[in-house]
Design brief:
The structure is a homodimer of 121-residue chains. With 121 residues, chain A is mainly alpha-helical. Helices cover 56% and strands 5% of the residues of chain A. In chain A, strands 1-2 form a two-stranded antiparallel ribbon. Chain A starts with a helix and ends in a 15-residue tail after the last helix. At the A-B interface, helix 1, helix 2 and helix 5 of A face helix 1, helix 2 and helix 5 of B. Chain A binds a DNA duplex (30 and 30 nucleotides) through helix 3 and helix 4.
Amino acid sequence: MHANLDQTFAALADSTRRAMLARLTRGEASVSDLAKPFLNEMSLPAITKHLQVLEKAGLITKTREAQWRPCKLNADGFKDVAKWMDQYRAFWEESFERLDEYLKTVTSKKHTKGKHHGRKS
Amino acid sequence: MHANLDQTFAALADSTRRAMLARLTRGEASVSDLAKPFLNEMSLPAITKHLQVLEKAGLITKTREAQWRPCKLNADGFKDVAKWMDQYRAFWEESFERLDEYLKTVTSKKHTKGKHHGRKS
DNA sequence: TTTATATTTAACTCACAAGTTAATTAACTT
DNA sequence: AAGTTAATTAACTTGTGAGTTAAATATAAA
């Protein structure tokens, strides 16, 4: 099932779904595990739908274990996004450097280096 | 005008808008420049709306020059996405490495290294 | 001042995403 | 077999995103 970027970005455009992904960085979780933080805000079928969106977007995979459906992150979707982002990396990293240059001219205090995700000094 | 991730990802979930961003990597462009490739598929007001979405998402900025509105990429939106992606980088890069390991076990041919965007060997 | 070019706003339609409740399927437990 | 827990499906409502056409605004050129 090959997701396209439209689906993947659309899946990411929802904070509930992003929170679910964040939870999954700490390891596999069942649907009800993932649902727990949201059951005061929305119903279980809503959760099921969110997970279906994430799965079709290639961001998670769901397996079966007795009556549970363990979910885990799927690298495919993330890779697609990362690959797409790569064509813009030069642009926004350059803009970090412009900021650095700027700060050097207006600031006497030293500003911490390596703040920008440790990349490119 | 501070965009949130919901808006930014939603803006990216449309191939017309992504094509506009791609065009802008080659430099500033007016609304009608950006519209040109799409005018057989959609009207000019539709283009205007797409650009408004991109602007509110913090992905482009629009300025004024006579009757034109030159647009250019805005690093802010890209940084936000990149920052968010960073918390998953370890995960999907690790999965590249797992793939490397796997390929070593099933393949006798050498497979090219540094293919994965040159990162992490 | 009129006309042409560039872009936006207004008002509307249509499709679809996100939520709901009620009913259903699936596997385990007693 | 009956009951419990986990998750999904069905059917529906509602809000919003993406497109439309027609009209309005803004600047430049004649």
